Amino acid sequence: MLFPITRRLALLLPALSAALWLAASPVQAEFTGLDWENSSADLKRGVVIGALTLVDTQRAFEAADSTCASADPTLDRGLGHMQVPQLQQAMDDYYQQHPKQRNLSIAHAIWAIALQRAK
Q1: Which residues of 60-99 are buried (b: 16+ CB within 10 A; e: fewer)?
Q2: Residue 4, exposed/middle/buried by CB under 10 A (0-12, 13-18, 19+)?
Q3: Distance in Å from the first CA to the final CA of the chain
Q4: Using CA atoms, how far apart are residues 16 and 36, in angstroms rounded to an integer?
Q5: Residue 55 CB coordination number (10 Å)
Q6: CB 1: neighbour CB atoms within 10 A?
Q7: What is the pLDDT along the chain (119 residues), one digit of tens a residue?
Q8: CA-angle at 108, arms to 50 and 32, nearest 5°
């Protein structure tokens, strides 16, 4: 579900700060599980809001244009009904349960969570 404009703007502030933080670190191209574990709650929330916004955006395109095929319905099925705190906790839990995957991109963890929840 798409949020009202004022709610979206309020939610974009942490996401914007996360994006600016990532853009300011030219040495590192990916945000990994190690970065996730060492990040503030605001940065984590910004990353999660970005992931869930992608799912909402895909839904909006599909609703507006029936010829727009989903990039991957697994993400919608797995993450589509999650709230920000739920995905943030799922990410924390994922890295606690899979410590050897902390050096991988968080996209790997998000995908694994979506796959698990989509079943």
Answers
A1: eebeeeeeeeeeeeebbbbbbebebeebbebbeebbeeee
A2: exposed
A3: 21
A4: 16
A5: 21
A6: 7
A7: 445 555 555 555 555 555 555 555 555 557 899 999 999 999 999 889 888 887 777 777 777 766 655 556 777 788 888 899 999 999 999 999 999 999 998 988 988 998 898 87
A8: 75
